[in-house]
Amino acid sequence: MLTLRPDDEGGDDRILDEAAYAMSSKYRIFVLETLTYQPSTPTQIAKQHDVALSHVSRALSELSDRDVVQSHSSGSRTKLFSLTSHGKRVVGVVDELKQGEGE
Fold it and tell me: Which among 42, 78, 77, 37 has a CA at the least distance from the CA of 57?
């Protein structure tokens, strides 16, 4: 059972919105699944899930715009992505919701 409750600042509502948004795309789910375990490059994510790099790049951009993932690139062309603290909460809710679908 999902344990979030709305708060005065809408934080929990925002988490639920982000979780619903993430779950509406298999590519965003692929990104979150991968980044849950380790920071990764777009190429690594695409290869792991056998999908086009363009799909992964778009999903990363969308999730970055929503403060779910962040990029790290110390001056190199290669960007490494990881979950933000907000993104970790989103992943927890997505996992909980996906488990509820299986019941």
Answer: 42
Alpha carbon of 24 to those of 3, 4, 7, 17, 75: distances in Å? 21, 20, 24, 11, 33
Per-residue pLDDT of the chain (103 residues; tens, 9 = 90+): 445 544 434 568 889 999 999 999 999 999 999 999 999 999 999 999 999 999 999 999 999 999 999 999 877 778 999 999 999 999 999 999 988 776 5
Domain ranges of the chain: 11-96
CATH number of 11-96: 1.10.10.10
